Amino acid sequence: MEFRKINEDITVSPQITRDDVAGIAAAGYRAIICNRPDGEGADQQSFEEIEAAAKQHGLEARYMPVVSGKVEDSSADEFGRALRTLPGPVFAYCRTGTRSATLWSLSQAKTMQPAEILMAARNAGYDMAGVVRRIVNGGKTPTDTGDARFDVVVVGGGAAGIAVSASLKARKPDLSIAVLDPSDVHYYQPGWTMVGGGIFEAGTTARTMGSLIPKGVHWIKSAVAAFEPQNNAVILDGCRVVKYDRLIVCPGLKLDWTRVKGLVDTLGKNGVTSNYRYDLAPYTWELVKGLKGGRALFTQPPMPIKCAGAPQKAMYLSGDHWFRTGILPRIDIQFMNAGGVLFGVKDYVPALEDYVKKYDATLNFFHNLVAVDGPARKATFAVNKPDTEPTTVEVDFDMLHVCPPQCAPDFIRVSPLADEAGWVDVDPATLRHKTYENIWSLGDVMNAPNAKTAAAARMQAPIVAENVAADIDGLSPHALYNGYGSCPLTVERGKIVLAEFGYGGTLLPSFPKWLIDGTKPTRAAWLLKEQILPPVYWKAMLRGHEWMARPEKVSAS
């Protein structure tokens, strides 16, 4: 007997015997559902035998047989009604448990998100890919797929999605390309650090999505629910189906605010803020200006996160304001980092440490934020230092800047495209999917071991466009990504440490050392960040103009 728990209400299992019922009752289950027709296998005990044992142990039993491979909509409806009327928790079984898991998945499709259903079934050991369209369609068999078809479908209209669409359209003007994204607004997220530091206005970082979709590219304003790579299909919310010859996946990542207990309830008030959200970055600056003394906490969660330097950028710009206004001696700055180093590329650490000293900030490594009590102004951290017993500490604060935990979007994590950690599984050089040769990925959602920054996406977009174009022409991918990423570390107003690096921490400077020495804070790097990069983003990157990003072609030998 196996207990394959889907959630607190339902567990499924392969075929059981009457002798298993005592264990099921002892485990706290109050009802059994049989989804296997009697006589399906020679070694199978009949439902009558199971029912008799169930009655002996005070359990209800219900016979709801389903022929293998023929789960009807009506059967799923009946299963859902049984879950509502039977005493719970319920134990359901068939030959392998798959029919029971399928019935549960379809029965919950009207009340749960598809990704939640797929994840719960997967965690119990069942792959529901075969019924994903029915799940997305509210548990019912679709009667009209309404297929649209494009040469290339791009999932995501962020920096990576718009840039790769523009670069590909420039190379292949006649391609039919569709961008799938439900958002009305596109954000220049690298600007939010500057908003939180009082340098940019929030409104300058936002534009309408419609104004940025490249000319000749179709915009389908809908969210993706699931993928069917075996059918070259993307399933949208509402069960609409979009077919493709080639697929590019770049929806960004998910900011998982709910993983920190109490955080959602206190964001934007009680001194709790984050530059990782458009509406909160102005509150950061409001708090920085208003704080006249006390403790300011700046957190960084476990990797990977987008722009790994952003949590400390907030600390530096805040410290710089307090330094310039003369109140720094009255403020206790604490950097709470779940990791064990200040920055992952050691060449840049000495310059950053100088600013840590300047702002008299305390570095607390292996401290991961797990809970926030906003009204009480208390933050709880799990402390997991090497060779020491794990513990938790509670820290009072007057201002708390949070970098939230991050992961791949739910619909990616439960898809066939994902690796075990939930990220899109690509070759780190060509950015082509390791299993599906007509799928590519770029930006924050894929699993290449590079920094997740807008600068990385700017470099990746032409590489993916070049390789997709080559594939269309019957050639092998010949543009290779070296892991380039850039993190302009705003250490003070007017100076930046411009970190540029690739795979393995290799330094990849874009400028001669006499102009910008990336290992030192420079005014030139600040001007690049403040005045040059925003127009490069809006007017070059998102329009397919590959300024300092044109891929080198590597011929096969």
From TrEMBL:
GO molecular function: FAD binding; hydrolase activity; quinone binding; sulfide:quinone oxidoreductase activity
UniProt KW keywords: FAD, Flavoprotein, Oxidoreductase, Quinone, Transit peptide
Domain spans labelled Beta-lactamase hydrolase-like protein phosphatase-like: 3-110
One of the GO BP terms on file: sulfide oxidation, using sulfide:quinone oxidoreductase
Pfam families: BLH_phosphatase
Cofactor: FAD
InterPro entries referenced in this protein's UniProt entry, alphabetically: BLH_phosphatase-like, FAD/NAD-bd_sf, Prot-tyrosine_phosphatase-like, Sulphide_quinone_reductase
EC number from the UniProt entry: 1.8.5.-
Name of this protein: Sulfide:quinone oxidoreductase
UniProt organism field: Salipiger profundus
Species classification: Bacteria, Pseudomonadati, Pseudomonadota, Alphaproteobacteria, Rhodobacterales
